[in-house]
Design goal:
582 residues; alpha+beta; six-stranded mixed β-sheet
Length: 582
């Protein structure tokens, strides 16, 4: 018997259930009860516990919130435990505690191992722990992706290994194509940018710029444009310091010389006065130096109209260049030229990268096409076995003449993957579409499930698929919500038998209204409704052998009677014998 993983679940304030505790056992557990008692709320509880959509409308009237708590036991190394650890969850005595709360306003909270987590974490766990199949969930089997997934699961390693190789190659091909497309689509823009950069660099190189040149030119233009004023000022200052050539005016140097002589005469008489004399002498030397420098400056100051014009033209050219490049000065233009040279080198190298990526894209595409061919062949081979296996199960489910065919086909797409002379639509899982076709009886044409199956037939096809997939399905818990709707008689017995077979390797929880199915249970839970005239309350009780007989008789006859009890006991005995033989 497969070790169960959902040990216990508690539901509070959900629908008609006020408070109920489900202690779940390994194997097959069935949940029964009168119409409106809240059986479906059990499935809703499992859905919520593993990340299902929160709906405030399902909160019990008068309750502020609905709470679902679960105790999950997983074997060491199970991928769900690794994901829980990443979320910071801690185990409680080897079990993982999961809690989901939904307020009447629709707000939802999730806790995992005592740690608040996003609801998405619970959804991720569900992929490794539980598969819920309700009447609405049957619709998933109608989706092409779900049908392909079912075939791949059945095929096992022969397909999944190739599919993984294809996914990895598809990602490489997609990345290379995206890079190549980006370079190719921007080719015209690159040409325009490169041309502009070349023109700019030619202009800058022709200007033969020197660092700081514009500042030097500004100073030179100012000096040449004001040469007469500068000469007059320098001459006046020199005359003030040393006197003019006529010597008629008193000058600073002459006065300092007179002061020095006066102090030198009495300096020996007073050291303080001698010190002052030394400072006057120093001042005289300084004035003489400045006067000499002024003389040199005067000899170099010359109004040169030609040089002024040339300097102004050069400065104007540099100013225009600086403005065009949007920088502050000539040094900024020089820096732009250095960056432009690097960028131009990159742009000129794009053609080489396009050529290299083109070769790489072709190589990856050829390799991917080879994997696609092998993957299609493996799926086609598995499709035959899969259809036969599902057909055998349908025969046992009172559809003895039904056949299911899994058709593996490809679709042309001009933007797809070239494979053996065709260009096929492609995705991460390959180039194949898979469609399950049902022939319900001889002479009927094969038709897609959504067109060729009634509700009861679809329920049995889905159950047959699940039985066939049971050996390869990694999900340890399966929940079925009235998948037996629309069937009865022998088909109902066979559904119970198949669910019991699933329960050898999975923990199976079934909500059913058929006594033929309930008779195969390893554990029988009944949802009990009590009506006090104002509030309806539901709870869940585990039935012993005697109580099971009473419940099965109610399910068959609508009430407890001696005749119904006899039929119930026969059902239980037959189911027990069947389990013993298997």
């Amino acid at each position: 018997m497969f070790e169960h993983v959902l040990e216990e679940m508690r539901i509070s304030g959900l629908g008609v259930i006020e408070d109920a505790v489900l202690e779940l056992s390994p194997g097959l557990t069935v949940v029964t009860g009168e119409t409106g008692a809240g059986k479906t709320m059990v499935v809703q509880g499992v859905n919520l516990l593993f990340g299902g959509r929160a709906d405030g409308g399902r909160v019990r009237p008068g309750s502020a919130k609905a709470v679902v708590e679960g105790r999950v036991v997983l074997r060491e190394g199970h991928p769900a435990l690794a994901r829980a650890a990443e979320a910071g969850a801690e185990l409680d005595d080897g079990a993982l505690l999961v809690t989901r709360t939904v307020s009447a306003e629709g707000r939802s909270r999730a806790h995992l191992g005592g740690r608040g987590v996003p609801v998405g974490v619970l959804t991720e766990l569900s992929e490794h722990v539980v598969a819920v199949h309700g009447q609405s969930d049957q619709q998933r089997l109608l989706r092409p992706a779900a049908q392909r997934s079912a075939l791949d699961r059945y095929a096992g390693e022969a397909v999944t290994a190739l599919r993984q190789r294809f996914r990895e190659g598809f990602e490489r091909w997609r990345d290379v194509r995206a890079a190549l497309h980006a370079l190719q689509s921007a080719a015209a823009e690159r040409l325009r940018e490169a041309e502009l950069l070349r023109l700019g660099l030619v202009e800058v190189e022709g200007a033969a710029l020197q660092p700081g040149e514009d500042g030097s030119l500004k100073a030179e233009v100012d000096r040449l444009a004001n040469a007469d004023d500068l000469r007059a000022a320098a001459a006046g200052a020199q005359a003030a310091l040393t006197g003019d050539e006529a010597g008629d005016e008193v000058d600073a140097l002459g006065l300092l010389t007179a002061a020095r002589r006066a102090l030198e005469a009495v300096g020996p008489l007073d050291p303080a006065l001698a010190g002052l004399g030394a400072r006057v002498t120093e001042a005289a030397f300084l004035v003489a130096d400045v006067a000499g420098d002024l003389a040199s400056y005067l000899s170099g100051v010359d109004a040169d109209p030609l040089r002024l014009s040339a300097a102004q033209e050069r400065l104007a050219a540099l100013t225009s260049l600086v403005r065009r490049h949007g920088v502050d000065d000539v040094d900024g233009v020089i820096a732009w030229a250095e960056q432009a040279s690097v960028r131009l080198h990159d742009l000129d190298g794009a053609d080489d990268r396009i050529a290299a990526l083109t070769v790489q894209e072709q190589e990856v595409r050829v390799e991917l096409a080879e994997v696609a061919v092998a993957l299609s062949a493996a799926r086609t081979e598995a499709a035959t076995r899969f259809g036969d296996a599902v057909g055998e199960e349908l025969s046992a489910l009172a559809m003895p003449h039904a056949r299911v065919t899994a058709v593996v086909a490809q679709t042309d797409d001009p933007d797809g993957l070239p494979v053996d002379g065709r260009v096929l639509a492609v995705g991460p899982d390959g180039v194949d579409g898979v469609e399950l076709l049902l022939v319900p009886h001889p002479g009927a044409p094969p038709r897609p499930l959504h067109k060729g199956a009634s509700g009861g037939e679809l329920s049995r096809v889905m159950l047959a698929v699940e039985v066939v997939l049971a050996g390869s399905d990694p999900v340890p818990v399966m929940v079925f919500d009235e998948v037996d709707a629309g069937v009865g008689g022998r088909a109902a017995v066979e559904i119970g038998r198949r669910l019991a077979r699933l329960a050898r390797d999975h923990q199976v929880l079934v909500v059913t209204h058929l006594p033929q199915v309930a008779a195969f249970a390893d554990q029988h839970l009944q949802v009990v409704k009590a009506d006090d005239g104002s509030v309806t309350r539901s709870g869940v009780v585990a039935l012993d052998d005697a109580a099971r007989v009473v419940e099965l008789s109610r399910m068959m006859a609508g009430h407890d009677s001696g005749l119904a009890r006899g039929h119930a006991e026969e059902l239980l005995a037959a189911a027990a014998q069947d389990r013993a033989l298997r």
